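4.2 Preliminary Data

To establish feasibility before requesting continued support, the project team ran the inverse folding procedure on a target of 186 residues. The structure was first converted into the token representation described in Section 3, and no sequence information of any kind was made available to the design step. The complete token record follows.
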């Protein structure tokens, strides 16, 4: 088998977060930074950014044959996981799906949502900008997601403090796909 070495990918990715329904960058803008007016750069990451698409196909069966005649997609879960290397209060707000930030002379503070509004989470959108084969840009957009795994932050004398995060994507509508991939072509 011949290997096309230009199809091999290595390199970091950048993460941006925006409000659910934020204006997405045009497909032709895959090589440019998303607009700061709609998208917030989440800063540095550590140990990479992991994109996971887990699909479940449920087999069909009939009495007349022993083989499964086919299957249907019955579940799909897609996530982006990483360690944010910049454990700021602003990033914590995104990881806990909202809250209240305050600042004053010599301080900043954050309180998570805790009232009845906590039962109605604040959905976001996430953009992962990485590389595609040929070392050109690849953009992955999750259009509606929540941070839904535990958020950890460890303080150690010999290790960097990070925020762990896992964003899970969700259904958008019958006319809008829940995620999109765009590769630059040159």
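Position-by-position output of the design step:
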């Amino acid at each position: 088998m011949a290997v096309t070495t230009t199809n091999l990918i290595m390199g970091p990715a950048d993460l941006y977060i925006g409000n659910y329904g934020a204006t997405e960058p045009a497909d032709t803008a895959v090589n440019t930074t998303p607009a700061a007016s709609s998208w917030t750069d989440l800063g540095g990451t550590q140990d990479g950014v992991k994109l996971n698409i887990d699909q479940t196909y449920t087999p069909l069966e009939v009495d007349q044959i022993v083989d499964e005649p086919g299957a249907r997609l019955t579940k799909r879960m897609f996530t982006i996981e990483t360690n944010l290397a910049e454990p700021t209060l602003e990033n914590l707000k995104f990881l806990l799906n909202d809250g209240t930030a305050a600042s004053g002379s010599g301080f900043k503070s954050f309180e998570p949502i805790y009232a009845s509004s906590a039962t109605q989470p604040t959905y976001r959108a996430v953009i992962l900008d990485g590389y595609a084969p040929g070392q050109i840009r690849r953009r992955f957009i999750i259009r509606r997601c929540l941070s839904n795994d535990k958020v950890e932050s460890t303080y150690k004398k010999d290790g960097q403090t990070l925020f762990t995060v896992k964003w899970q994507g969700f259904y958008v509508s019958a006319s809008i796909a829940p995620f999109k991939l765009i590769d630059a072509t040159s």
